[in-house]
Amino acid sequence: MTAVLESSGLGKRYRQRWALRDCTLSVPSGHVVGLVGPNGAGKTTLLSLAVGLLQPTTGSVEIAGDRPASSSAQLAKVGFVAQDTPTYSGLSVADHLRLGRHMNPGWDAKLAERRISQLGLDPAQKAGKLSGGQRAQLALTLAIAKRPAVLILDEPIASLDPLARREFLQILMEVTAEQELSVVMSSHLVSDLERVCDYMIVLVASRVQVADEVDELLNTHRQVTGPRTDLSALPADWQVISASHTDRQSTMLVRTPVPVTDPAWTADPIGLEDLVLSYMSKAVRPSPDSSPALEAQR
Amino acid sequence: MIWLTWRQFRAQSIAAGAFVVAFGVVLLVSGIKIAHAYSSAGVPGCHGAGACANAATTFIDQLRGSSTELIYYTGIVIVYLAPALMGMFWGAPLVARELETGTFRLAWNQSVSRTRWVVAKLGLIWLAAMATAGLLSLVTGSWASPIFRAGQLAGSDSVSLDRLAPQLFGAQGIAPIGYAAFAFALGVAAGVFIRHTIPAMAVTLVGFGLVQLAWPSWVRPHLAPQLRQYLPITGANVNELVVENNQFIVRRTIFKPGGWVVSNQTVNPAGRPFGGAPLQACVSGPQSACNAAVNTLHLRTLISYVPARGFWELQWIEAGIFVVLAAALTAFCAWWIRNRQLT
Amino acid sequence: MMWLTWRQFRAQGIVAAALAVALGVVLLITGLNLAHLNSDSGGATCHGARACATAANAFINQLPGTGSVPVFFGTIAVIYLAPALMGIFWGAPLVARELETGTFRLAWNQSVSRARWLVVKLGVVGLAAMATAGLLSLFLGWWESPIFRAAALAGSDSAAVTRISPQLFGAQGIAPIGYAAFAFALGVTAGALIRRTIPAMAVTLAAFGLVQAAWPLWIRSHLITPLREYFAITPANVNELAIINNTQMIVRHDVEKPGAWVVSDQTVSPSGHLFSGPPTHACLSANASPNACNASIAALHLRALISYEPASRFWPLQWTETGIFVVLAMALAAFCAWRIGKRRLA
Predict the structure, then answer these.
(1) Does B115 contact chain A (CB < 8 Å)?
(2) Which residues of C touch B244 (CB under 8 A)?
């Protein structure tokens, strides 16, 4: 399976601060990828690098098989909706569609017009007068109608009300199925992503914590409870994500490729949201017994 | 891309168009009046230097103090201001506004490369700016042509009729086209570097203003091929005679109708700048004695001047330089946008 | 509120101060030079009309060589431009920027009423604009005082140095203060009505430019009714004599009123009507002798009727004009405050 987004050691530094570090990903195509992380984790930075709005400080990134924004044909393969869905407030909805038509050789005018009428947008209305949800839909239409191979969305639903959010995701799913797109979508709300994503990247404190298919994640992570044990006494193939101990009990989130058979331990599956939250809080306050692979590099 | 540039530029072009049309109408109405006065003063069919000079003077005197004089000076101001305003209102916001509002994230992810986007926007509006400036210059120039012709016939000394004079030169011919190109490129560059519209406008205004102020004094004299001429100074034709503090200043002011006297120096018979001690006859004594004494010094005025026929050569040189500067600035902007990130 | 106003105005204030200081330094250096020249030529300590006139003339003759002329006209240009620039860069963005970027939603939900917010911002920045204009005018006034004094002593009309003439009037005294207040208020109003910064800037520029161009032409001469005076036109003092189309004759005597602003100069016949012809026989005939022509003109008993504002009216006009512009500015400001307070701005 070809990778739609591939990066190797990708990093971006602004003056003294690293916004993104050691990002090595290989995201297979044909998935709806969710990029989660708290605010300030580096999601926008990663997406901007992927789209070609930023240049990496270290490492490299490839999207749809080529360097971002390297040519007009490459640009046509990537659809992007930026944070705050910028639109030209002085231009009308119809003007925006014309913009898309003039600037994209692969523009599908029928699709665009169909979407606009389905959404109930008035073509003559200036974009500055639309509501937040309508602007987001307009921006999505622009990105979809150019028939890209991959769609990158930076927090597209952050400022939408629950109904608008649901509509947006619904349309996104329809389009993804219709056009066989790959989608990379960032958000800080896991519950939204849970419904639609089948691949998850967790980004916390400028680093990728985990990146894998959702099914795989859910199958390999377990919430185990058992008698109080020292971490060094655990099976070798258990990767401890987080642990909490009382005098007599230990509760841990572990990642293991094989099912837990030891009767001393009770293993429960964990929901995606809790999983992600554990990764997020763990990275924010790294516990002293965390696995060496996730230790911060000096 | 052309459509998008036009659509985003629509409001400004309509405003500019409306202004040019309004001004054109004013000039048209006034121009008819001038043509009338021109022919009724008898200038077109005059014969002989004396009669022509008289007719021309009559014509010019009629215009003094009337609305024509006001339009004349207003026209000059407008042609000088237009490039600066276009740089401020068309150039500075071009890129800066997209950076400020974040819409560049939408524009630069269409299937058009950044370079093409920049070149299309810059190129089209550049041309529009140059065309506007050229149009204004053409319209005011043809409106004023009877006045200039009369000025030459009348042998007038008035600086406000010397086409090459620094005050007038930049408002005629093709020089405004060069200025417009440069001001626009300067505005875009300011917008790209400063990334905020209003500071970019201020910087464009100040920068262009400084260039315009410094240019006629420091750069233009070196552009034009100048002629040198020695003219004798006698007690009779001396214009300025100052005795003070052991300094003796003797000057004769020379006018070259339609030309531009760049420098004017008093030299002694040996050819050196004159800086002698005051003559006794001029310190104390009647004017006639002073005049006679000055005669004995055999001083001459050395002027360096651009003759009236050098007007177009200088226009082409100056417009060419500014267009080249503008192109360089534009190329630099395009390179900057392509290679650097601006988020 | 004061702190917020200052903090938002800081950048522009510093730029303006820097420019004013730069101009001030230039004026200081050249002005001291002028004062030096003036005292050297004896203008300061002269006694008697003739001696003073000679000293003054000596001083004036040296002026072109000192490079004072470009400084003078440059400063005049700056003083004329400053109110327009302050209107564009300080006034137009004041409200328009907040409306455009949406920050008014932050500003107008603090515990300060909208009216108070506007009044403080208008007041602080408006006063800053007026102070800047006044300061520049003050600098120029100090700098040019030796020149004007010498012009008066030399008794020449030195038309270019007449304070009350339309070209100089608006850059002298307190008139720039009135213009600055008006331009600033105009900018704020344009910004509040148009709600977008750059169009507001353009509109302010255009509107203020029109007012400034039209005012000296059509309004200023009516502020205080000009004086009228008749001058007999004799062959000796005719400045312009022209025959047009053999049907019209123009006879003009350019009256010179030292230090005054001649608003209009017309030739009238003894009955008081405007004289425009017909040409006299003696002047019209092909072999006209100058003496016969002159005699015929003298026989017409023409007079030059001028309406003018004498030099003594300089300060009354200044106060009147400044007052009018300040009142206009306050009216505009009040309108803005009403508009912002009442209307719902999305």
Answers:
(1) no
(2) 40-41, 58, 62
**DSSP readout, C225-242?**
PPEEEEEE--GGG--EEE
Q: For residue B211, what pLDDT is reported?
A: 93
Contact C217 B70 (CB under 8 A): yes
Q: Which of B8, B98, B110 to mutate to test the interface with A (most CBs of A within 10 A)?
A: B110
Strand runs labelled E in C25-128: none
The stretches in chain A having pLDDT less than 70 are 1, 283-298
Give chain C positions within 8 Å (CB) of B245. Answer: 40
Of the candidates A53, A79, A89, the beta carbon closest to that of B341 is on A53
Is A273 an interface residue toward B (CB < 8 Å)? no
Cβ–Cβ below 8 Å for A75 and B1: no
- Give domain limits for chain C: 2-225+312-342, 227-311
Q: Is the pLDDT of residue B6 over 50?
A: yes
Tell me whether 0.85 is exceeded by the ipTM: no
Query: Which pLDDT score, from 0 to 100, does residue A293 have?
Result: 43
Q: Which of B149-158, C24-33, C293-302 has the lowest mean pLDDT?
A: B149-158
Cβ-defined contact of B112 to A146 (cutoff 8 Å): no
The contacts of residue C230 (CB under 8 Å, 6+ apart) are C268, C303, C304, C305
Q: Would you place residue C44 in the very low, low, confident or very high pLDDT band (cuts 50, 70, 90)? A: low
pLDDT in tens, C274-333: 887 788 887 777 666 778 888 888 888 888 888 888 888 889 999 999 999 999 999 999
CA distance A73 to A76: 5
